[in-house]
Design a protein that fits this description.
270 residues; alpha+beta; seven-stranded mixed beta sheet; six-stranded mixed beta sheet; Metallo-B-lactamas; RibonucZ/Hydroxyglut_hydro
Length: 270
């Protein structure tokens, strides 16, 4: 039974019952006008509301989530890398049927998550597949359910395999991280960005925000550093946090020109 409390607004799972959700009380999220409400994974499973959703999103990339989405509603991405399957980000809902579908695809060797809004049921996923979860140490304070499966890393990059690299950009959260897969997009490279680099409706650009729901822009110095870090990588496609939120072509150029546009507007207003 998975009865650890989960916030209904953001999906964060906590080790014990509490009245507040620090994630929602932070200015990068919000407490709904109806107030803080709680559930748990067992209740979600028994409700009959949620079913697994597993769909291809691109070459070697399978979206993993639920229908409907729960809380924030992001989907994860199963990276079918040469080194083995790896799960990027985390969807809140998990049941035996979803575990079985992922196992049929070859299981997973590890998990990495872009930022705390998607930590949610990461410990459930780690236990179900007996794998580690890699989180940047700068966001340690936001972990709702500590567990030995959680592995903190520091610095700017971490190679979780010889063909998969985590890059700490510091956008949105200090530990805000993206995943670079050089073999992705049939060898042209793919950037898995969560909403650290946000795929927006105009696919010719991406966005950078400190708080999305409360419309607080990211600091110019952080965006400048992120663009400089990503200038050292090549990638054709960018995969965001939502179903079909994908920049299919010219991903590298999209990031660089978006950062230039952002900085031009931000510095003009300074």
């Amino acid at each position: 039974m998975s009865t650890e409390p989960m916030c209904q607004a953001c999906g964060m799972q906590y080790a014990a019952a509490r009245e507040d959700c620090p994630i929602c009380e932070d200015e990068r999220q919000y407490v709904p006008q109806s107030g803080q409400q709680w559930t748990n994974l067992s209740a979600l499973r028994s409700s009959g509301t949620y079913t697994p959703r597993v769909e291809e999103q691109g070459p070697g990339l399978t979206g993993v989530g639920s229908n409907p989405g729960f809380a924030i509603g992001q989907r994860a991405l199963l990276v079918r890398a040469r080194s083995g399957n790896f799960l990027w980000d985390c969807a809140a809902y998990l049941d035996d049927a979803l575990v079985a579908q992922v196992e049929e695809l070859g299981g997973i060797t590890g998990i990495a998550i872009s930022h705390p809004h998607y930590y949610t049921t990461m410990v459930e996923w780690a236990h179900a597949f007996d794998v580690p979860v890699y989180l940047h140490e700068a966001d340690q304070q936001w972990i709702g359910r500590p567990d030995p499966a959680v592995k903190l890393w520091s610095g700017t990059t971490l190679d979780v395999a010889d063909d998969l690299r985590l890059i700490n950009l510091g956008v949105h959260f200090d530990g805000g991280t993206v995943l670079h897969w050089p073999d992705g997009e049939n060898g042209q490279g793919a950037l898995l960005s969560g909403d650290i680099v946000q795929v927006i409706p105009d696919r010719t650009h991406v966005g950078f925000m400190y708080s999305y729901p409360n419309l607080i822009p990211e600091r110019p110095s952080v965006v400048r550093r992120a663009a400089e870090l990503l200038a050292g990588y090549r990638f054709e496609a960018i995969y965001g946090a939502w179903w079909d939120a994908i920049v299919r072509t010219d991903g590298f150029e999209v990031v660089q020109r978006s950062a230039k546009r952002y900085l031009a507007h931000a510095l003009d207003q300074a």
